Amino acid sequence: MKDRLITIVITVVTTVLTMSLLDRRPVSPAVAQQPPGSMDELIVNRLIVRNELIVSDTGKPWEEGFEKHNIPRGLVARARGGNVGDAGLWVRGRLIKTEIDDPFDDRFHAINRDGSVFRAPGHISWNVWLGNAWRQVAIIQGEALENSEVKDGFSGGNHPGRLRFQSFRPHHPEPLTDAIIGQGMMSIGGGGYGGGGLPYPSEVLQLWGGTMTQSPVQTPQPPQIVRHDGSGKHTYALIALGPQGARSKPSPAVVADGLATLSWDSLAGADSYIILRDGKQIGPLRIEGARKQWTDSGSR
Question: N or C: which end of the chain has fewer CB within 10 A?
């Protein structure tokens, strides 16, 4: 018994001395400036957060002045339950997903509590802050077909779906469907149709509630000569091309005293342009921006 007590005393004294020495170790300036309870790095094999995870340089979940908007300072992740509000993930700034040797893959999973098919697994919405709340203005929703449309029923090898595009119209409290795409068919239209939504397509392409208008590509204005190299006279004109390849009439020609740098305004409906130099075609050219600029190198 005496030997056991001596062993216990020695163990306690050794522990106290060891902890005292550890507390006297030099501390890096970065660690010394951190608030109590913080650390430089934490390495764990598994991390379980029951209620809320906050990544913030201020330690606060929301940007100051935007608390009711739920604009995060960095990242906020919440689980369902507890006293922290709705479950979700809030990210401030860019959300970047990167894969190596794997296609980009984002999925929306949803299921009813009884295990049956949830027909609208998820949607993407664009919102604006109005009337002290976030309001949707446009929605893209993925959905499964109705049970009446699937004769053999849903199964692991049979789960057809479609995409629904919706927007909010003036003085309508609910979104109205603008287009439905799926099963090699597409409906385009507008209006509520008695609250039933846009009719599902039965043909490859169906247009509802309006007429289809095709606008020809207009003749472009002549290009402006920004500068030239003085190597000899050349004439320049423009031809606009629509996305289906339809060509406009050539613009009036301009004359430059050499190989020129040309500039012109973007033309509504034009996908690309052909430049006629001395009657010979150069292009098609696809140039970004509302104002186009192109320099003739003489090699085309």
Answer: N
Separation of alpha carbons 123 and 135, rounded Å: 15
Extract the tokens encoding 271: 């996908």
* C-alpha distances out from residue 26 to 29, 190, 262, Å: 9, 71, 68
* 235 within 8 A of 278, measured Cβ to Cβ: yes
**pLDDT higher at 298 or 181:** 181
Q: Which two tokens stand for residue 137?
A: 């203005």
- pTM, two decimals, is 0.66
Helix (H/G/I), strand (E/B), else coil: 19:
helix
Q: Which helix (H) or strand (E) holds 90?
A: strand 88-91
Q: What is the C-alpha to C-alpha distance for residues 283 and 298, in angstroms, rounded to an integer?
A: 13
What element of type H or E holds 29?
Answer: helix 29-32
Q: How many other C-beta atoms lie within 10 A of the C-beta of residue 201?
A: 21
CB 118 within 8 A of CB 147: no
Return d(Cα 104, Cα 97) in angstroms, integer. 8
Identify any residues that bridge with 69 across adjacent strands, giving them in sequence order.
none
Among 155-159, 169-173, 215-219, the range with the most confident prediction by mean pLDDT is: 155-159
CA 125 to chain centre: 10
Encoded tokens for 157: 């090898």
Q: Which residues pair with 84 in a beta bridge?
A: none
Residue 13 is inside which H or E element, if any?
helix 2-23
Distance separating alpha carbons of residues 270 and 247, to the nearest angstrom: 9
